[in-house]
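debug: dumping io for the single-chain case to check the tokenizer round-trip. Nothing else runs in this session.
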Amino acid sequence: MKIKVKKLKEDAKLPKYAHPGDVGMDLFSMETVTIAPGEHHRFWHGFALEFPVGHAAIIKDKSSISKAGLHTMGGVFDAGFRGEYNTHLVNLSDEPYSVEKGDKVAQLLIVPVEIVELEESDELADSSRGTGAFGSTGRK
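debug: decoded output
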């Protein structure tokens, strides 16, 4: 699939795959910043995308910075969005984390999604899980 990308800022580094067959395209910082423990920061990437309905752009953690305690927040972009892409990071560690301009801060996945129609019902079919929630399968 080919999708359109539009540079919104001259110095933007467009998303790119690091290796053939990768599913996530690297997203790059356009600034140098240090994120203190517990602090949030939004990185603007200077580009916009156009892709077909039935797909979503999802921003996820880079393993290299998630090991340091940083995590992406939010990060689901609909097919109709034409604004500037951004990554919202939070530092969940006890140490400050420095990002240099040009560093990888997240990865972008373009994934197919089902657009559904909800049908209200008084009953749902039984399942083996039932209403079992978080931790319902136990530790072992």
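debug: round-trip ok. The mean pLDDT is 95.
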